[in-house]
Predict the structure.
Amino acid sequence: MMGVLENYILHLADNQLILGQRLAEWCGHGPVLEEDIALSNFALDNIGQATLLYKRVAEIEGAGKSEDDYAFLRSEREYFNFLAMELPNGDYAFTIARQYLFAEFYALYLSELTKSKDTFLAEYAVKSLKEVKYHVQHARDWVLRMGDGTEESHYRIQQAVNHIWNFTGEWFMDFETDLELMQSGVVPTNSKLLPEWQNEVQKTCLEATVVMPVSGWMHSGGRNGKHTEYMGHLLTPMQYLQRAHPNSKW
Amino acid sequence: MIQAEDIWQFLTEVEDPEIPVVNVIEMGIVRDVTYAQDKWVVSITPTYSGCPAMHAIEQDITELLSEKGLQHFEVKTILSPAWTTDWMTNEARMKLEAYGIAPPQKGSSDKALLMGKLRDVKCPRCKSYDTHMISQFGSTACKSLYKCESCLEPFDYFKCI
């Protein structure tokens, strides 16, 4: 039986891996060369962070697993990433809307995580925050450019924000699985991050002339392994090699 | 008996695989060399979490130390304190510039710099400050792409982290 801390770190790692996998799909398909490179850079950050986190889970579990075992040999229900991470990339506006909203959340989250009583998590947070600040800056610039751009770009970014909005709710839920860690100061209490996140997002929306959606019913499930139908389709190409040729090496 | 200073000296032979003009010590990647429980431990820290050069660096260190006759050693990755461009030595900065990469400016940990305005970056070729950023993200995670308006050449800028 996996402990609560390992399970939680897997959740953090899975967010990074799945978002990284999605961003990597843009490689060679970006709208302009600079953006292609930017998204590949972010994917690299995400997958690098996932590697650090999976290694830590392996250390705690002590069963001699490697980061690749977690990435390539688990099935859909064993992944604990937020649903927003696995949604298809859509158009560039959708990718950017997800990048922006999640990076804004993750920067706040990591700032809190730097105070963690778990040394590894605190160290991970300090390291990753430096990278995530660049992600916020990049995505925010694009939200502004599209929102305050042409009629078409404005329409697309507004649609994108509306579409992703119902998937942001679970980022701010305090799941029962994690309460113990939250109460003992190991991880932040996500619900407490909501006001500041809304504040930051509102500022960006105002500047971008985008209407911030009103929060209503929210999707959730990823944290506990219940995914959208997109998850299996994402894992299939990602895991193909290790599934078809077990233990093959690069 | 090999001393820690010898190992530090050996490690100057390990180049950064992406920027072969600087070594891993000048880059601030090697954080510590210690001897404990009958083995040497070389602690290295990643520049960026996903930097692909880290694997190569770990391998290069392992190969080099084996060549030098060390039998019991470990190359360990540590995360804290998190790597910052401030740890690059002045020598490394000069070498970067001579190589055509504008070195990172000091004081990178400054939040205002990351989130706020960009500072003026000097062209490594003609030394003009009349430059502008073309893309914040370049050929590797640690570089941005710039263009010089004086000599019209594009160049890489090692961005602050």
Summary: Chain A has a mean pLDDT of 96. Chain A touches chain B through 28 residues (CB under 8 Å). Chain A has one domain: 4-244. The first helix of chain A runs from residue 4 to 24.
